[in-house]
Amino acid sequence: MTENNHKILVESLPTTTVFDDFMVTVNFTLTQSDQNDGAGVYVRGDSNLDHDYRIEVFGDNTYFIGKEYLDSNKTGKVTSIVAPTKADALHPVGQENKMTVVMKGSTLVLLLNDTVVKTITDSDYTRGQIALFADNGTTSNGVKASFSSVAVYHAPSQLPS
What we know:
Blueprint (H helix, E strand, L loop, with lengths): L1 E2 L4 E5 L9 E11 L5 E8 L6 E7 L3 E9 L5 E11 L9 E9 L2 E6 L2 E7 L7 E7 L7 E12 L7
Antiparallel strand pairs: 1-12, 2-11, 3-8, 3-12, 4-5, 4-11, 5-6, 6-7, 8-9, 9-10
């Protein structure tokens, strides 16, 4: 995925399935990125991805978890659940990373390269689609992200810790 117009390029999983409790694992490489560019997944998104959880890895080895919604004027907004946070588990730009997101009930568990980095609780979105994205921030000429695999499984009976 390549984006160079300071926007987010989104690709929904090609399925009509609506996911509630699940585990998604994505292998990806940021091949071109600065600290404001990133790639990741939207989970439990509505049909337009106006309401969803957004998990993003940036080019400076930080990750972000946000909640997207429309305000009263129908303008898209993002609330930070976890502000950009350094993660030693992340590999630098040019090297492959593995992101696993477990959604079970109101719990979201984020693993980066098989290391649990964050567990949060939020009950606003209970089901929806899954999508991949590449995000070109305001400070670079473009982002390039290569996704080598995506797999969706049933949520495990016990959450990783």
